[in-house]
Write a structure and sequence with these properties.
Structural class: alpha/beta
Number of helices: 9
Radius of gyration: 23 Å
Strand order of the largest sheet: 2-1-3-4-6-5
């Protein structure tokens, strides 16, 4: 087993309990998982190579399967493709680990939907994923990031600071898009790409948003959060500020979900490589139809 020395931001045991509860919630709460899984699967349409083994990682990995492109669905039906679901939902309160039991170079593709934003050691997790890919294998993942739930965060900060004189984390921190491609490169991926889609959801009131977050297993799991239930004055103060700051005339409020999409390839000799400085066959002057002048000393 690999020990991680990364700071522990999230309570993995609490997240497992939240996820297990969410599996039995009203399916209507799962709309965001399905929406992001479909957008993740759309990115597979441009991949033409043949895949024999795919692993799907996450707290709820099975949701990606139904959105696979027809070519991969047919390969599954014909027995030409093996798909393995690997859930993060393992361990106990005493043994919380982010070690992936995957053999090196064992998969052609690894997918992960809506799970990476709960990983404490994300560089270590990405490095494990890269090592589990065969040469020229591909990783595609999605995670919440950017300005996700910035409205809810601002509402709780304002209310709790005003009422209690301090602030306990009520909304989990998320990854910044600018850092995502760098993390892929740090983990050893070739051709790393990170982009995002913004999903704006309208709710009749902020309490409906909190119910959805609980139902989809995306409630707060930050280490150091207050063990007590949120005080009624703070909760209702936050809901009131949410409506005042972000609501429309009917009281409906928006919730922002920035869905990051990450992709990278296990290195292979056939992949395109950046040119060495000075190795270009044509100069900028030639492209512009100008005469190139030597530098004067």
């Amino acid at each position: 087993m690999v020990d991680s020395f990364a700071p522990k931001l999230f309570d993995g045991y609490a997240k497992r309990l939240q996820t297990r509860r969410a599996r039995h919630s009203d399916p209507r709460h799962h709309f965001l998982h399905r929406e992001v899984a479909e957008r993740l699967a759309d990115r597979l349409l441009d991949l033409e190579q043949r895949f024999e083994t795919i692993a799907v990682l996450g707290w709820w990995p099975g949701g990606v399967r139904e959105f696979l492109p027809p070519r991969l669905q047919q390969a599954l039906d014909d027995g030409q493709l093996q798909l393995v679901d690997l859930s993060f939902d393992h361990g106990t309160a005493e043994a919380d680990t982010e070690f992936l039991p995957l053999r090196p170079a064992s998969f052609d593709m690894i997918l992960s939907n809506m799970a990476l934003h709960w990983v404490n050691d994300l560089p270590g997790m990405l490095a494990q994923i890269r090592k589990a890919l065969r040469p020229d294998g591909v990783f595609l993942g999605s995670a919440l990031g950017g300005e996700t739930l910035h409205e809810l965060r601002a509402a709780f900060v304002e209310a709790e600071t005003r009422i209690s004189g301090g602030y306990s984390p009520r909304v989990s921190p998320v990854m910044d898009l600018r850092d995502a491609a760098g993390l892929l490169q740090r983990a050893g991926f070739s051709l790393p790409v990170a982009d995002f889609d913004r999903v704006l959801v309208s709710y009749q009131n902020p309490m409906s948003l909190l119910e959805d977050l609980r139902g989809m297993g995306q409630s707060n799991a930050v280490v150091g959060r207050s063990p007590r239930l949120t005080a009624r004055r703070v909760l209702f103060g936050a809901l009131e500020h949410y409506i005042t700051a972000f609501g429309d005339n009917s009281g409906a409020v928006p919730a922002t979900f920035d869905c990051l999409f990450l992709s990278g390839w296990a290195p292979h000799a056939s992949q395109q490589k950046p040119l060495r400085p000075g190795s270009a066959e044509f100069s900028l002057a030639e492209a512009l139809g100008a005469e190139e002048q030597p530098l004067k000393s």
